[in-house]
Amino acid sequence: MAKVVCFGEIMLRLTAEMGVRLNQAEQLAVYYGGGEANVAISLANYGHQVAYASKVADNALGQAAENHLRSYGVSTEPLLKGSGRLGTYYVEQGVGQKATKVVYDRQGSAFASMAELEWALLELFAGVDVFHVSGITPALSEAWREWTIQLMQAAKTAGCKVSFDSNYRQTLWSQEEAGKFLQTALPYVDYCSAGRLDAIHLLGIEETTADVSDYYQLMHQRFPNIQVFFSTNRVVHSTSVNELQGTLWSNGETYTAKPYLIDPIVDRIGGGDAFTGAILHGLLSQKVPHETIEFATAAAVLKHFVKGDCNQFNEAEVLAFMQSDSAKIHR
Amino acid sequence: MAKVVCFGEIMLRLTAEMGVRLNQAEQLAVYYGGGEANVAISLANYGHQVAYASKVADNALGQAAENHLRSYGVSTEPLLKGSGRLGTYYVEQGVGQKATKVVYDRQGSAFASMAELEWALLELFAGVDVFHVSGITPALSEAWREWTIQLMQAAKTAGCKVSFDSNYRQTLWSQEEAGKFLQTALPYVDYCSAGRLDAIHLLGIEETTADVSDYYQLMHQRFPNIQVFFSTNRVVHSTSVNELQGTLWSNGETYTAKPYLIDPIVDRIGGGDAFTGAILHGLLSQKVPHETIEFATAAAVLKHFVKGDCNQFNEAEVLAFMQSDSAKIHR
Amino acid sequence: MAKVVCFGEIMLRLTAEMGVRLNQAEQLAVYYGGGEANVAISLANYGHQVAYASKVADNALGQAAENHLRSYGVSTEPLLKGSGRLGTYYVEQGVGQKATKVVYDRQGSAFASMAELEWALLELFAGVDVFHVSGITPALSEAWREWTIQLMQAAKTAGCKVSFDSNYRQTLWSQEEAGKFLQTALPYVDYCSAGRLDAIHLLGIEETTADVSDYYQLMHQRFPNIQVFFSTNRVVHSTSVNELQGTLWSNGETYTAKPYLIDPIVDRIGGGDAFTGAILHGLLSQKVPHETIEFATAAAVLKHFVKGDCNQFNEAEVLAFMQSDSAKIHR
Amino acid sequence: MAKVVCFGEIMLRLTAEMGVRLNQAEQLAVYYGGGEANVAISLANYGHQVAYASKVADNALGQAAENHLRSYGVSTEPLLKGSGRLGTYYVEQGVGQKATKVVYDRQGSAFASMAELEWALLELFAGVDVFHVSGITPALSEAWREWTIQLMQAAKTAGCKVSFDSNYRQTLWSQEEAGKFLQTALPYVDYCSAGRLDAIHLLGIEETTADVSDYYQLMHQRFPNIQVFFSTNRVVHSTSVNELQGTLWSNGETYTAKPYLIDPIVDRIGGGDAFTGAILHGLLSQKVPHETIEFATAAAVLKHFVKGDCNQFNEAEVLAFMQSDSAKIHR
Amino acid sequence: MAKVVCFGEIMLRLTAEMGVRLNQAEQLAVYYGGGEANVAISLANYGHQVAYASKVADNALGQAAENHLRSYGVSTEPLLKGSGRLGTYYVEQGVGQKATKVVYDRQGSAFASMAELEWALLELFAGVDVFHVSGITPALSEAWREWTIQLMQAAKTAGCKVSFDSNYRQTLWSQEEAGKFLQTALPYVDYCSAGRLDAIHLLGIEETTADVSDYYQLMHQRFPNIQVFFSTNRVVHSTSVNELQGTLWSNGETYTAKPYLIDPIVDRIGGGDAFTGAILHGLLSQKVPHETIEFATAAAVLKHFVKGDCNQFNEAEVLAFMQSDSAKIHR
Amino acid sequence: MAKVVCFGEIMLRLTAEMGVRLNQAEQLAVYYGGGEANVAISLANYGHQVAYASKVADNALGQAAENHLRSYGVSTEPLLKGSGRLGTYYVEQGVGQKATKVVYDRQGSAFASMAELEWALLELFAGVDVFHVSGITPALSEAWREWTIQLMQAAKTAGCKVSFDSNYRQTLWSQEEAGKFLQTALPYVDYCSAGRLDAIHLLGIEETTADVSDYYQLMHQRFPNIQVFFSTNRVVHSTSVNELQGTLWSNGETYTAKPYLIDPIVDRIGGGDAFTGAILHGLLSQKVPHETIEFATAAAVLKHFVKGDCNQFNEAEVLAFMQSDSAKIHR
């Protein structure tokens, strides 16, 4: 099994019960999650040796985030604690035709307000196979943009593969800022989760077709160091019903998984991270591309049927799901 | 913003969790609601100055009903308290092909058993733009039929528009009783929520067509004082899946909204009141009829996705729902 | 109304909330059930005089199982208590495309580990019209295979009809073991719940057609004592959406009910038992076969909309469901 | 074991969580209970054959009351169902120095508004050893006063002992009305739960001493047919902390149990009924008076530690409680 | 009834269930509160016309805070909404010998980060009898110290009485900062909630005695404008058991209420605010000092028995509590 | 920090809510625990490097037990998974004078039914400072008695200290069996949790005094290899109120901590394990005996205020508790 370091912010998520508006809620369910943390948990579930590097508040909430990660077997050795708060977000769950609504409350977190990169990078990446980070981290500040590049450079120096999930969030930075960062960062990237819209709006590739594989080809021309591109195509029938289909580009070839209907969705948050985690597992365990993309799509779909941000299924369970007709009672 | 008085009974609703029969329930969720109270809350959410006139039990449950109204900004100045109980109803929520079942327990309520109209009507309607009442109030007793007429007369005298929602309930009175009342009441009405079945069964208009606009035309001929008619057409696929489409008749023209699929329904109770409240908002804020009916249909649909009897969305949220593709996560 | 004895194990069921994996659950909902116990409750709900014969742990959990049965009016006079545990199973509810997962923990139960048949059989069957047992009991052990035959023999001697639900569970015994038992047991059976797969895999009838009535004809030729066969055909669209249609074979004729869509399913466990209970009710109350199969299919469908293992509807409610368009609010 | 008929109203109790005011509650816990129903359940728990005669609403709530009784093994053969509501009461639980507050909502119940005694009294009392009724039933109406006398007369005629719990409630009738009824009823009574205040305020016995045994002596002089008097003395330190001590008068002797501290109280409602039920058990099972009063006091104390109106302990558990030092973990 | 303006921050409080550590909690209960908001609600409960001036986040949480205030009848006309977050704090409830632990997360709130006083002060105080503010507001920033003085000055100019609760919090500012502020602010104050420790540590009065009345005398000498001082003395036996006794100084006289035992405490937070609210009610309704201090102590004690930050009892309920032996069931 | 291996069974605990009897419970709270697992978690909380060696069911419940351990940072490398069930126990929580009742259901667990010691002992103890096991493991079977000795021998060979908690459970083995085992095992033990009753009933030391230190002296004479003895003295006022005081014997001296009142107890289970864990921490971190026993007593007391089997406080929190007056709100 491989050794992986995931890096990014982990937040507290407070969720009102389905059918209850946030401003009416008398109880909020507590989850902890973040894009890279969710990927870390997926990889630990698949048997890899994963460490999560981040910084959390030195209080009960930061401790809870650590407990959450550890419960899945993720090492929290590089998880720092210090002053500042734990970034928080509130979720009013959508259902049917009503969209899910998120209220972010992440300013001033211990992670976002770090004054310097506090890890010993040589040590952090020693013996590590893959370093995973997402576009949310550089979106936090100008400093984090620089530090993200430093991290990628250190990882490459240590012989790590670099996995990057573009994960563009318009509330955090502009397309211009993101595009500028990508130009600097992508030369260090080996595995890249990005889609058609990223190509067009962040990298300025001209919109000529709906076929994502064409864009991957063009992105590969610009950044020949990137060996693998991947993304999901989501057809949104309603908040409760989606279709999902994964695509993987590798070595000039595009592999598309069979599409899944997800009906009804229990909790969509983290679906993309479950996909990324499973893609990385496919790459790290030498699955062939076709198996990898089928596995990753199934893993992403399964995530939608459990509450909380992270994938909670191991490899055997994902494989069983792929092979089952998936609606029998398993006695 | 306009000044509105809504008038009617407010009740305690006790609801078993979905999938649990009333006779098995160990916990019941508590809501407060009533047709006119729900309209009052909708209008307060849209920014109007709304007072709710009713009478509740002078005990903790009556106090809870008042707290409920006030939390939405509805004035409870004309909410009286006195002896008697708070009308109650129990809901066993349907799901899928199983219907929702309601057990009424409303006899002997403080409102239904009032001995006289206890409000100073001149004061109640001073400066008020619209007076809203529904057919449930006159259905309670012979006395309430008289008092409802007196209220309408006083409202008209004070220069108020009168809004009336027919809301026929066969368990409370016969079609004959209701029809007789309508003949007396409708001459005072400006805005009327009624549908094809009301026209046929309560007003005795001959059934000749399925087109509600024809009936509105005929009703308008009988009661030329009524400026606006409105109703929803609901196609029931199952308890969990409905289609809803609103119709508004104004000034000889019929306006029909785009139909909405509601799948799955979280709580259907109060959907009609959300529609009426939004229609009145359209009329009070001088929206054009087309906008009014689209807004009202959307507001009614949204209500189905939250628990409890009343609409909990403000104007901006309803408008956003109309414009969204309504199933994205709003980050 | 008829007098019925149902016989078999009753177990504790612990269920995680939908969307929560068993290994994450901090709360488990408690139900009690078992195939024959569920049939007993159905028949008591329909007004029959039903006794449940079993053995449970002489502790709080055994007492809870007894309370459960009694609450529906089932007599627990022949319910023994003694050492050993109460068989238990854990349910992770599926939803959408994710299957339901059951973890069995039933070894060493007071029932399964009985050393002898502890009932006075003459007394047990005195005046009883129907004795109902299922294939789960003989699957428990070699001893239980013998005892099941003894029970059937005693019942026949006492003039009881014998009802048998094949209920094959591959985790308990092999097809060979089950087939061998059936050869010995079926000659005592009057009413038999079994399907096409039972005929092929347990009775070794050659697979030639998909039509269950052909198999019933062949089974009847082998066991002419069996007057009635019945089963449901379930089309599984997903864990949340099934179609269900019942078939009854009687006197050489096959009767098929109208199919029902079940969307969404709240709790599928016990659906088959609700079907069997309702078939027995039809037989015991002299309904014509057509009515019996329609009633039983509707009863089975209704069970899917309530939590817990047993049917919770009485005859009037099932009939109302059959006649309703089943999605109106019943005020 | 003896055969007992308990008679009276059973009600729905809705309780807010401790620390939550009724007017703030969003969830209410559901219990069913009533003085005589609680006694019935106690006696069934102790192994007697108990039937409960009452009338409940013919709806889901009445059905729930029946399920509740049956779950403890109480026969509901003489439990009628019909129109009217189920009497209800709401409980705001006190704690510490804050008192518990009850909101009654029992008017118009199916029981209270019966038009005639609907039971065949000969049949009701055939073979019955004890008939138990309380002062709440005659307090409901003038008609119920007459019917209660008729029931007592019929019971005596059938050879039943009559057990009566005075249970005076000032919100239901005046001391004068209650006193007048007692004069007529007590001549039929064999076992009487009443205390010093009943003697003084209802029977007009002069207040001369604090010693309840003197009053029992005087009451016995007036009603020499009464063989046994009993009551508890409760010292209220706070809502959460009480002391309880039972007294039994029999055959001219007064027996007083050891006092118990109850700290903290979980649910006080039904403590007196648990006491009465255990006294009757002592009488019916020929315990000596000393054992009876110790048993009954312990049973009453135990009730305070469980939620809901009724005693949930069997004889062995009460005896174990009496002998234990009562605070060890029983592994 | 008087007209009151309360001013200060209102926060979201998230509380883990008793016995569950914050870092283990999977559910958090939601309350809204703040010192001055709690006082506002108390005064509204007592029938005064109260407005709450503050600024909250323009999101669902800010809306919830507004709903909370309105539900008690507090006017939110001067409640502003804008960018920034809603201050939050997390509570791990203590019990027995374990202390309650609070994790504050209030930085960057919409209120704390206001750039200027956004209210029209003339309008805010027009016709107002009392302006209430606490020491938490000036503790937020240097700017808020200035603005608090401006508010007091404007209030005095408008003819308002100024009520000030010192409410010193060492995590927000130093004793020096607080003392300096008090020197500037107290000359505007009419009613002052402060205690012995405030006198010694904030005002630099020499510690010579344990008797709070001596300190009040000395404080009055320094600030002769202050007509009334008040505070509670709390004896902490454990987190679950406290004794509370209020003291009021008025016109040279000290009035001390009878002490109350509070056992067990349900929720201590807001006890002091309930005291202040009740003192102001006594002053505004011309109770004599003796009655005022008894009323306020009782009101403060009652608060400890309900969950949430604010007093939920009206005047009649507080008076009933004072006169009751406070542990009877009130049927 | 030290390296520790704890060894023993871990079980599923299902607990009814306080005030609800097991046979009435509709929900059970889920915890995982066991004597040695609880000690492991305590030591991990205090910063040691702890591994837990056990065997659990290879199903969702075994996985949950692993997640539980990992969440506290305990390594589960030596946690095996295999066939068999997870031992289970059900808890009906006592309160006040009602005792807590435990229903064990642990037969046939994967751990108890192991066929051989499956760990490579050399590897298991490599570099380990302390090996901790309790008397529950040898109580499971004759085989486990042998294996426990083998484990102790291997630990000693590897240079480990052996910690043993006698933890006598009469439902698992007789005093004779336990005594015989102790004679064989204690020669390998360095740190021994045992009390006066163990000395008298298991080791046959004559009862001459109530002073535990005398027995420690005598036990030390028999087993001079044991360096440290420790135990708590618990005074049980009621299920809700206990006093606790720890004693430590070391090097011929007895150290007794200050006694603590625990009022009210939230969850007593695991209190002894919290004590043992904290004693080991004291020994491993070279605290002086006086500090160790004070720390351990405080840690044991704190455990009683949180739900679940394990201590959830770190060293700083225990120290803060010792120094606090322990009932202030910590803002």
Automatic annotation (TrEMBL), chains A, B, C, D, E, F:
Alphabetical list of SUPFAM superfamilies matching this protein: Ribokinase-like
One Pfam family this sequence matches: PfkB
Name of this chain's protein: 2-dehydro-3-deoxygluconokinase
GO molecular function, one term: kinase activity
Organism of derivation: Enterococcus florum
Protein family per UniProt: Belongs to the carbohydrate kinase PfkB family.
Superkingdom of this protein's organism: Bacteria
Transmembrane segments: none
Keywords: Kinase, Transferase
Domain Carbohydrate kinase PfkB: 1-311
Gene3D superfamilies given in the database record: 3.40.1190.20
PANTHER family linked to this entry: 2-DEHYDRO-3-DEOXYGLUCONOKINASE_2-DEHYDRO-3-DEOXYGALACTONOKINASE (PTHR43320:SF2), SUGAR KINASE (PTHR43320)
InterPro entries: Carb_kinase_PfkB-like (IPR052700), PfkB_dom (IPR011611), Ribokinase-like (IPR029056)
